[in-house]
Design goal:
This protein is mostly beta strands. The chain is built from two helices and 34 strands. It has two domains: 336 residues, Tachylectin-2, Chain A (5 Propeller); 131 residues, Jelly Rolls. Strands 13, 14, 15, 16, 17 and 18 form a six-stranded mixed sheet that branches. A hairpin with a 6-residue loop joins strand 26 and strand 27. The longest helix is centred in the first third of the chain and has 10 residues. The radius of gyration is 22 Å and the shape is globular. Bound molecules: beta-D-fructofuranose. Beta-D-fructofuranose binds next to strand 1, strand 5, strand 9 and strand 14.
Length: 485
């Protein structure tokens, strides 16, 4: 892989022409997704500014235009009317102000009647390369263009390290106040969330305190991308803790977890009612955020980055990398988050095809079991060798996924085998395969497993135990790969 100099990583984009060839080239890749949002060029990471506004879903992603590395970040804009079909809209926010001179980092959206605002981190670095993160705002004008407010709302606090970013903005009806939840790292390198409050959305912000999360005072070294959402009267706190190994998660030190409980805005305490859970048990899932304004207090929509910090993927050789996950509906049932693929996903089924052991490059598999252990080997060669192997152990209620048999192996350092533990016996798996990804939804949303996957042409077979039944549909393409900058 090419070494990128700092100059190359922090080069600004001046004209679409500069990356047109790149787009034309990567478009022909066999790994370009067909029903997942992916970078128009270069690299995508976190979803940003995800919101429903005036009949449309807006979704941005962290974007590095020039290639498959992290560098000067933009927000790239996509829209959808149904969360299934996505259209490229061009650059949303560019790092063109002094406050974000080294990147427009992650953030979230909030609607106020007819207005739409975006709160994000301006990643400023001074001439000595010292990072100074600012919390900034932009709004969407009538033409759909994002306009930045000239000044940030506030800068960093000195009682935390330089890592203070990713504002989640919420309105609390009872208190008639706005709050910002900001991911941060204390000076003694613990992950935390800083809370800011204001009576007005665009001014008057003051620091309210550090969020106390009972039992999570020492839980990793930085909490990225915090998110809080109320579902069925319960608060759900979502965040991405880093620099910590967690049981059953291999060597990875980047995670995306959630807690269900009660957010007490009086004492700035989140009181979890149970242990944390992983949002996803797969290899590649991080920095998820929700759009909660879905008009139903019992659900939220979540989308994540299908990838992890410090990991590398085979499409780097083709000069691009990344994808977002399918949007998921979140509900709370019996104190647990239930995550199902966005409703209407079945309309993307193109045709049901015979379950004859061949795997199309974009398809949905529905696997049903009447009980007991089973195996599902995906992406094997014609002779049944290799591939991604899934074994369900009914006594333990654990589904183990092993991707070490694939020809193209990657991120071996974090481990190639992971478990998806279940509470209920596994009776149903919904499997969504796109050209470079797989998402497994267990038992109608009890647990989810997301992984990138880069099969060779020969790796297009599957085999299941006799005890389970499979149906397969090819999927329609629903995400446009147009060059819009
Ligand atoms: C998470 C993250 C955020 C940051 C953004 C930069 O993946 O590191 O904390 O805002 O990515 O691209």
């Amino acid at each position: 892989m090419k070494e990128w100099t700092r100059e190359e990583r922090y080069r600004a984009l001046h004209s679409p022409e500069e990356i047109k060839d790149l787009h034309d080239r990567i478009c022909t890749s066999v790994f370009r997704q067909t029903y997942h949002v992916q970078p128009v060029t270069g690299l995508s990471n976190d979803p940003n500014g995800f919101v429903f506004h005036q009949g449309k879903w807006h979704l941005f992603y962290q974007w590095f235009p020039w290639g498959p590395v992290h560098g000067l970040k933009y927000w790239y804009h996509t829209t959808s009317e149904d969360l299934l079909h996505w259209v490229n809209e061009g650059v949303g926010l560019s790092p063109d102000s002094v406050y974000d001179n080294k990147g427009v980092f992650s953030g979230t959206a909030i609607t106020e009647d007819d207005d739409l605002y975006f709160f994000y981190t301006g990643n400023h670095r001074d001439e000595n390369w010292v990072r100074i993160p600012y919390t900034c705002v932009a709004f969407m004008d009538r033409d759909g263009t994002l306009v930045k407010l000239p000044k940030p709302l506030f800068g960093p606090r000195d009682d935390c390290s330089e890592h203070q970013r990713d504002p989640k903005v919420v309105y609390h009806k009872g208190k008639n106040k706005y709050y910002i939840f900001l991911g941060a790292q204390t000076l003694d390198r613990r992950g935390t969330i800083l809370i800011y409050q204001s009576d007005e959305l665009l001014s008057g912000w003051s620091f309210a305190g550090q969020l106390k999360v009972t039992g999570y005072e020492h839980f990793g070294g930085m909490w990225e991308c915090p998110c809080i959402v109320n579902i069925s009267g319960k608060d759900v706190l979502i965040f991405s803790p880093q620099h910590i190994k967690l049981p059953g998660r291999g060597e990875s030190t980047n995670h995306n977890v959630y807690l269900i409980g009660k957010m007490d805005y009086e004492t700035l305490t989140f009181i979890p009612e149970s242990d944390f859970h992983h949002l996803d048990y797969g290899f590649d899932f991080y920095a998820a955020q929700t759009a909660s304004n879905v008009g139903d207090p019992n659900k939220a929509i979540l989308i994540g980055w299908m990838g992890l910090p410090d990991n590398h993927y085979p499409t780097e050789e083709e000069d691009w990398e990344g994808s977002l996950t399918l949007p998921r509906e979140l509900r709370i049932v019996d104190g647990r988050l239930i995550q199902t693929p966005v409703s209407g996903i079945e309309t993307l089924r193109e045709a049901e095809i015979p379950a004859d052991g061949t795997l199309p490059t974009a398809c949905e598999l529905e696997v049903r079991s009447n009980g007991g252990d089973f195996d599902l080997n995906l992406f094997t060669r014609a002779d049944g060798s290799g591939g991604m192997r899934l074994h369900y152990d009914d006594a333990k209620r654990i589904c183990t996924v092993d991707r070490s048999g694939m020809d193209r192996r990657f991120n071996q350092q974090v481990g190639e085998i992971l478990d998806m533990p279940l509470e209920q016996p596994l009776h149903r798996l919904s499997v969504f395969i796109d050209r470079s990804s797989i998402e497994l939804f267990a038992n109608d949303g009890e647990a989810v497993f997301t992984s990138h996957i880069y099969p060779t042409v020969e790796e297009c077979h599957y085999k299941v135990s006799d005890s389970v039944s499979v149906r397969i549909w090819t999927m329609k393409s629903s995400v446009k790969d147009d060059f819009v900058i």
